[in-house]
Design goal:
alpha/beta; Spore Coat Polysaccharide Biosynthesis Protein SpsA, Chain A; 2 domains; eight-stranded mixed β-sheet; 15 helices; 8 strands; about 50% helix; globular
Length: about 450
């Protein structure tokens, strides 16, 4: 039970000594910094290839056949995922419970930080087996005061205060606190997270498999009934949780989602910690873990509750950050991804979902423009139709898992609205790809405002 703070004076001898010791503890990064260079050039090349490829499809005699063949391949892979039956998770308590460090980077979170600490300090896990570290990342509201008060109440709570001018965003905060932690498993949560007491006992047994380097917990929108935007986000989370679980069962790629991610310390240190040169640390770490031959598992129950954004502009900024960070990750690691020798299931899964998430939305713009110019239907309609159909079915099944006692009619209406809501990704990804191609590289962490609006989802 303590409050740790870093001195404001960077020339302080004690700080220099501490920084030196922390540097000694940090392993050499698995991926050198040059992987993050020339992102604008890479984005421009990618954009040019997509536009050029779409043009070729429009003006070649075999373009339509190629698209239909590609749509058939995506459809077959989609059916493999949709038809994979979930055998359920059998949680057998491990022989000895590993220590767990729960990390939260908090900046101006006075509305939610108190409830988070209350929730995390009442977990059904041996008190000596876990610790909660909250990094106060230069807050200007009452967050430091609230944390000070709660430190006196909960021995598991530790607080690290970052000085003004600290860099690296969330990744920088997590890297700074990591050497102070003692857990064999490192868990990362957002400040608005709410969990059930049995969470650790459900997650920890999954690490009994030595190949599992990380586990992502299913997420749900706590304030889903708030408005149409939060309802759309709830359907989106249900879709993501469904495909995450199904892809892993089919031998595909598991992905981290930031809030509710658990990482084996050994795996995290081998990958060099969190990347401070990205705006989506979770997607970046996902690729580095897989490239280092670790698997990422997924826990469907219990879910981590988080607050959905309620305004259009907040949603726009959040999704732009997600899209840009995801695109950056693929641009950074495209060479090792191409060279990687994976099982064919992982390679196919990665290629298909990259195509759905980034390739197809980027190609939609030139496809529409060329089709208007030539007065014909877009050539990518077969591929788009297959993708939307797979998403539609996956969202319905995901919502059925999320709300098992809900009538099929209501689930159908939620699916239709969720599918329409998901169309915003076409605009987001297309605009982000174009912007990355012409704008100089920059890192900008846009904070999502949490209002403490955590009415429990049904």
């Amino acid at each position: 039970m303590s409050v740790n703070s870093w001195p404001e004076n960077d020339s302080c001898g004690e700080l220099e000594e501490l920084e030196s010791s922390l540097t000694d503890l940090t392993p050499p990064p698995l991926f050198p910094p040059h992987n993050y260079a020339r992102r604008r050039f890479k984005a421009a090349v990618f954009l040019g290839c997509v536009w050029g490829g779409t043009l070729v499809l429009h003006f070649s005699v075999w373009g339509s056949w190629l698209v239909m063949g590609l749509a058939a391949c995506v459809g077959v892979h989609g059916l493999r995922i949709l038809w994979r039956r979930d055998r359920g998770l059998v949680h057998v308590p491990p022989g000895s419970l590993p220590s767990v460090s729960l990390l939260v980077a908090a900046k101006d979170e006075e509305a939610v930080i108190g409830e988070l600490v209350e929730s995390f300090c009442h977990l059904d896990y041996p008190p000596e087996g876990y610790e909660l570290w909250v990094v106060d990342d230069c807050s200007t509201d009452r967050t430091p005061e609230i944390l000070q008060q709660m430190c006196a109440k909960y021995p598991q709570l530790q607080v690290l205060c970052r000085p003004q001018g600290s860099t690296g965003g969330k990744s920088g905060a997590l890297n700074q606190v990591l050497p102070l932690t003692r857990g064999e498993i490192i868990a990362v949560f957002d400040a608005d997270a709410q969990v059930t007491p049995d969470l650790l006992r459900q997650v920890v047994p999954l690490f009994d498999c030595p190949q599992v380097g990380a586990v992502q917990v299913s997420k749900a929108i706590a304030n889903a009934p708030k408005n149409l935007l939060t309802q759309g986000q709830s359907a989106e989370m249900a879709l993501d949780a469904f495909f995450q679980r199904q892809r892993i069962l089919a031998g595909g790629i598991g992905e981290l989602r930031g809030n509710g991610q658990f990482v084996r310390r050994v795996a995290l240190e081998r990958c060099g910690g969190w990347n401070e040169e990205t705006i989506t640390d979770d997607l970046d770490l996902t690729l580095r873990l897989h490239l280092d031959q670790w698997d990422i598992d997924f826990l469907s129950q219990p879910r981590v509750q988080e607050e959905g954004v309620t305004g259009v502009m907040a949603l726009w900024h959040q999704r732009n950050r997600w899209a840009e960070g995801g695109a950056q990750s693929y641009l950074d690691y495209w060479q090792p991804l191409v060279r990687q020798r994976w099982q064919w299931r992982k390679s196919v899964d990665l290629l298909v979902f990259w195509l759905i998430k980034y390739g197809l939305p980027t190609a939609a713009v030139p496809d529409l423009l060329f089709s208007l110019t030539r007065n014909r239907l877009p050539v990518l309609i077969p591929l788009t139709s297959v993708t939307v159909t797979i998403s539609l079915v996956g969202m319905f099944l995901g919502l059925r898992r999320l709300y098992p006692h809900q009538s099929p009619g209501r689930t159908t209406l939620q699916t239709l609205w969720g599918t329409f809501y998901m169309m915003h990704w076409l605009v987001v990804v297309a605009s982000v790809t174009l912007r990355m191609s012409v704008r100089p590289k920059r890192l900008k962490w846009v904070k999502t405002l949490h209002r403490g609006d955590l009415a429990r989802a049904a």
